[in-house]
């Protein structure tokens, strides 16, 4: 499967906002978006033309896709799934993105960033209801318990989690840092998304 291998900080600079792809670095003075808040490339500091309606819609779609670490095909399939659900398509899309296993691992504080969470899942370190799951796009359900495999709980990353080094956990997750588990106690709502996104523009982009 194709994947992005260039500097992820370039993506934050291109979208003009922090996507929190580098863990603790994003909260420090070393953050590229903070030190160089211009688009990447030799013309990044040039005056930008006013974006068209299509351009604005594209940027919102790219921002969401890059933040959650999806390729274009994956993101479009997720949108189509959201469109087939009852309710507001944009909110359905964000809910499906939040319920991805790699995102839940990140949001529960078991990983420093979504890319790191994806790696942990792919390497078979995570479980869902006690069973190993190595598919980052796996959609967790209400009541599911996400945890760390017993044989991998002694690595430095998880020791730091036990010591309380982490972030604010969203209210739809209930965590147990001692046992390194997180339970989906509710479905994520629009206000639980910790990014500035205009999901209606994403809907408009795919509805053209």
Summarize this entry quickly:
The chain is α+β, with helices and mostly antiparallel strands and 208 residues long. It contains 9 helices and 5 strands; from the N terminus they run αααααααβββαββα.
Topology overview:
Blueprint: H1 8-15, H2 32-35, H3 53-68, H4 72-83, H5 89-98, H6 101-107, H7 114-122, E1 126-128, E2 131-132, E3 145-148, H8 156-162, E4 173-176, E5 181-184, H9 199-206
Helix pairs in contact: 3-9, 4-5, 5-9, 6-7
Account of the 3D structure:
The protein contains nine helices and five strands. It is of the alpha+beta class. The protein starts with 7 loop residues before the first helix and ends with a helix.
Q: What about the largest sheet?
A: 5 strands, antiparallel
Q: What's the order of the H and E elements?
A: HHHHHHHEEEHEEH
Q: In angstroms, what is the radius of gyration?
A: 18 Å
Class by alpha and beta content: alpha+beta
Helicity range: 25-40%
**Fraction of residues in β-strands:** 5-15%
Name its key features.
5 strands; 9 helices; 208 residues; alpha+beta; single chain; five-stranded antiparallel β-sheet; globular
């Amino acid at each position: 499967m194709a994947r992005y291998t260039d500097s992820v900080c370039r993506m934050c600079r291109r979208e003009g906002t922090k996507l929190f792809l580098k863990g603790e670095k994003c909260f420090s003075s070393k953050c590229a978006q903070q030190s160089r808040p211009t688009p990447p490339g030799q013309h990044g500091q040039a005056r930008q033309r006013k974006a068209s309606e299509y351009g604005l819609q594209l940027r919102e779609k790219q921002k969401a896709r890059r933040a959650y670490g999806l390729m274009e095909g994956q993101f479009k399939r997720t949108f189509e799934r959201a469109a087939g659900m009852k309710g507001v398509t944009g909110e359905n899309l964000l809910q499906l993105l939040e319920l991805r296993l790699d995102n839940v691992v990140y949001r529960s504080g078991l990983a420093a960033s979504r890319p790191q969470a994806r790696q942990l899942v792919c390497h078979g370190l995570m479980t869902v209801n006690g069973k190993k799951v190595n598919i980052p796009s796996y959609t967790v359900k209400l009541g599911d318990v996400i945890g760390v495999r017993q044989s991998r709980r002694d690595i430095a990353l998880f020791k730091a989690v036990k010591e309380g080094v982490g972030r604010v956990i969203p209210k739809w997750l209930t965590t147990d840092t001692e046992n390194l588990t997180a339970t989906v106690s509710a479905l994520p709502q629009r206000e639980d998304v910790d990014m500035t996104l205009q999901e209606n523009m994403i809907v408009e982009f795919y509805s053209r």
